[in-house]
Amino acid sequence: TILDLACGEGRYTFLLKELGLRVVGLDLSEDLLMYGKEKYPGLNFIKGDMREIPGKYHIVLSLFTSFGYFDTLHENVKVLTSIFGVLNDGGIFWLDYLNKAYVAKNLISTSQSRISANIEVIENRRIVSGRIVKDICFKRDGETKRYKESVYLFSKEQLEKMFVSSGFRLQNCFGDYSGNAWKFN
Fold first, then answer.
1. DSSP β-ladder status, 23-27 and 44-47
2. 3-state secondary structure of 27
3. What whole-number distance in Å separates Cα of residue 151 and Cα of residue 68?
4. What is the pLDDT of residues 40-64, one digit of tens each?
């Protein structure tokens, strides 16, 4: 069984299920899970906090930087401890996370896009106190909604220490989705 941690609406939960895998999606956002149930009927979702994950899994996936959002190091380590605790013996945790050095050097401060003909998205990014802070503005039919995201920029070494302190044994660290070697520190 695979856990898609912080699955949002479940787009990857859906893809994994389409491959014939047994997958569960967990997210804290009831709105995103409700949207996902409408968009992808038949998916197995759990509303929950990643610091207290229910169940047991062979694989836990944390995709597209869904780690590092909590305010304290202790809370972020608690996530890793929770993940370690729900893995079956020999289980695997796969973390997809930012490369701190690369982001600091290549941060795109502003971007604009359209997610539909009438919805424009404007994102402003900056690094503040070791975190990426992203201000997100959705403009739709004259209405504006604003959101803020903030995630720690942990270095590879910080992440490795956090993993080991949570009980993990590290196997690999890749530099990209093709499995190439890590290039930045």
1. parallel
2. strand
3. 5
4. 999 999 999 999 999 999 999 999 9
Of 96, 94, 91, the residue nearest 1 (C-alpha):
91
Burial degree of 125 (CB within 10 A; 0-12, 13-18, 19+):
middle
Q: Output the pLDDT for position 115.
A: 85
**Confidence band for 182, pLDDT divided at 50, 70 and 90:** confident
Count of residues making up the chain? 185
Q: Do β-strands 131-140 and 143-152 pair in parallel, antiparallel, or remain unpaired?
A: antiparallel
Strand residues in 6-107 grouped as ranges (E) = 23-27, 44-47, 57-62, 87-95
Burial class (CB in 10 A: 0-12, 13-18, 19+), 4: buried
Q: Which residues contact 10 (CB under 8 A, 6 or more apart)?
A: 4, 25, 33, 36, 39, 40, 43, 45
Beta pairing partners, 61: 4, 94
pLDDT at 185 exceeding the cut of 70 = no
Question: What's the pTM value of the predicted model, to 2 decimals?
Answer: 0.90
Give the type of residue at 147.
Y
Read off the pLDDT of residues 17-37 as tens digits, 9 standing for 90 and up. Answer: 999 999 999 999 999 999 999
- What was the pLDDT predicted at 45? 98
Name residues whose C-beta falls within 8 Å of residue 5's C-beta, 6 or more positions apart in sequence: 26, 50, 53, 60, 61, 62, 66, 83
Amino acid sitting at position 41: P
The CA angle 180-182-185, to the nearest 5 degrees, is 165
